[in-house]
Amino acid sequence: MLFSSLYIPTLKECPADAEVISHKLLLRAGMIRKLTSGLYTYLPLGLRVMNKIARIVREEMDASGFQEVLLPMVQPGDLWKETGRWEHYGKELLRFRDRNDREYCLGPTHEEVMTDLVRGEVKSYRQLPLRLYQLHTKFRDEMRPRFGLMRGREFVMKDGYSYDADLNGAQESYRLMHECYTRIFKRLGLRFRPVEADTGSIGGTFSHEFMVLADSGEDTICYCRNCSFAANVERAPVAEKEAPALSPCPPAEEVATPKAHSVQEVSSLLGVAPESVIKTMLFRVDGKTVAVLVRGDHEVNDVKLCRYLGANEAELADPEEVRRVTNAPLGFAGPIGLSVPLYADATLARGNDYVCGANKGDTHLVHVDLARDCRIDAYADLRTITEQDPCPRCGGEVRLTKGIEVGHIFMLGTKYSEAMHATYLTENGTETPMIMGCYGIGISRIVAAAIEQNNDENGIIFPPNIAPFEVILLNLDVKNADVSAKAQALHDTLSSMGIEVLLDDRDERAGVKFKDADLLGIPLQLVIGRKSMEKGICECTNRLTKEKGSLELSKFADAFSAWQKTVYESWNRQSKV
Known about the structure:
This protein is of the alpha+beta class and 577 residues long. The chain folds into 3 domains: 48-237 and 400-452, BirA Bifunctional Protein, domain 2, CATH 3.30.930.10; 253-380, YbaK/aminoacyl-tRNA synthetase-associated domain (YbaK protein, Alpha-Beta Complex); 469-574, Rossmann fold (3-Layer(aba) Sandwich), CATH 3.40.50. It has 16 helices and 31 strands. Strands 3, 7, 8, 9, 10, 11, 12, 21 and 24 form a 9-stranded mixed sheet that branches. It has a 5-stranded mixed sheet with strand order 16-14-15-17-20. The chain is globular. The model has no long low-confidence stretch (mean pLDDT 94).
């Protein structure tokens, strides 16, 4: 392929609204263009990357016994009402009416539509298991779309669904997908980790996320250095140590804490450790106000709070609600005397003699014993795990790292099949709901995640299996007929070897070509010019390691194959976690 014949509108400067490195580099490399907030056009190189990801996903899904279908993007509201998600999914579901005033939505996911298909066709245990998938455009009306392809409103996703007759079959489908996803991300050349995760709005009994490890990730994952435990911090349980014997503390009393709003300010003013301070956080949980107590050095985990209370949504109460409930300005809320439900993190039950807000301006309470001084509705695991906590599985040392969610598999159980009456007849003639699983991979998000994980100051560094081209060949003397002929011959040789090669035949300065080659992230770089031809070589560079070398033109095919092998070996080392 000739560079001059491709539409690759590279940019020298980063657009002002690009926030993360993948967004900046995708725009600069001419791979995407923004249409409007959260909506992007894929240009030729960007589409080549996405299609290569899709090809690997298809190959592995087919090998796992799943069959590809294609469902409509526009979905009837009636199906969503059957499962109750029409009311509960939230504002991300883009609802509209057609000319006949019927309610529809743009599909953010396809559990309802796929289950509607299956319930109309599958009637007997003999037809199970049934495992289907699709690659499709989704739409979620994100309130704050950001980070380019990382969190857009429209995106490309692979979603798969399994329907089994019993729990053993459902567990086998889940195992097949866990292994399939592991193979997919290994083939993509990404450093990743599968982690236990919350099921969120999809529902189900348990799930795993597949996280690409990157410092810019929005998610935090916890993993053990001693065992195989790994989980999203939204899900990671806190293993509480045995409670020590507690000595009685003096009666609670008020102390003046002028302008001390934060834990740090209070602990510094009173000379106590942050873990001796109680934070009283007010949340609106499904429209009702509750108070959650955690130690000053801990953070409330709103996902755990929702799961514990069986709620759909939890968000911090606004300042007006805090003042209404506590009769105090922000920073001075405390649990004593509150009329709303009180839930305390289990860690607080292991101590006493705490400091907390007095529900009065510029005032705190000291010597607080929660068991003695307040009415706690329940103690529960309501906080985010820290590196000071032991592994909940083996008691070993845990670490936190950032990740980007690129895949998610769910054991759904009968949540959708019962609601939509997707049943089959057993061998004994008993009508029984099918057991479901669902499995998603963000195809377009992987494009961004791969760049977030693999880049440098010069541009993108694509893993070979998903790079738009495997080789970029730079002709540094396009006006020299002999050099151009040799460049074309090398291009043709590589193509005959099954190598996708981009020949930069533009009449541009060498510096421009080198910069663009680095920016585009093509993993193998070859350079041919008058001087190298005179030496009987072409120069080569491994984009990942920046190692340079040369290949003999007289033995080019063999020399290239040997060098290509070393480049792939460097990627294999790079992609190991």
